[in-house]
Design brief:
single chain; 244 residues; alpha/beta; 7-stranded mixed beta sheet; 10 helices; globular
Length: 244
Amino acid sequence: MTHPRVVVIVQARMGSTRLPGKVLIDLEGRPMLERQLERLQRARTPDSIVVATTTVSRDEPIVDLATRLGVPVTRGSEDDVLDRYMQAVTMHDADVIVRTTADCPLIDPSVLDRCVTTLLDDPTLDYVSNTLERTYPRGLDVEVITRQALEAAENDATDPADREHVTRYVWRQPEIYRLASVTDTDDHSQLRWTVDTADDLNVIRAIYRELYPSNPSFGYRDVLAHADAFPDVHALNAHVRQRP
């Protein structure tokens, strides 16, 4: 039996409303997207990583960065992200898709591997994530979905919100699709390690300044230890509201 081809698709664009151009903002001397790709490349389960950006001209720098790093890049609709994903799926022959977003430079490869393995170990599953039942901090979000389920969403989803949020059509229908959650032993969902605002960026930069120079492959537990040691830093973005 052929092993399913696992492809991580990182959606990235420059047109963020709250922090424009955030995916290429400097993080310890490199663009934020590059830092995230460094971390993703340490995951064991993916066969390929692809950056999926838009055809809008302002996203040319994302294409240039991915090309320089030797990471495949595809381009599609800015608003219909589901269609953008399906283009990448088709081009890279994905059987299992790992969805990540380019504003999560603390994403943890071991958490990603755990989500992928959960789906691969149970052929009845359509979708696995650590977001349906949130125990991990925001910013470690991983969604894993089968090609068949994503194709069904592409064919049947008409709500613009389903087209924008890629997997929403599937996880909102547990009566049709078989879903599973990956959870941590403790609940750290109050922590926010994604980048939507300047305050978010201040938190992430503080973490990188402290951890990256001595341990470039620092992981989830290292950041939790940082949160315990520097609670004031991790409180800087506690007021930021998550967008729907």
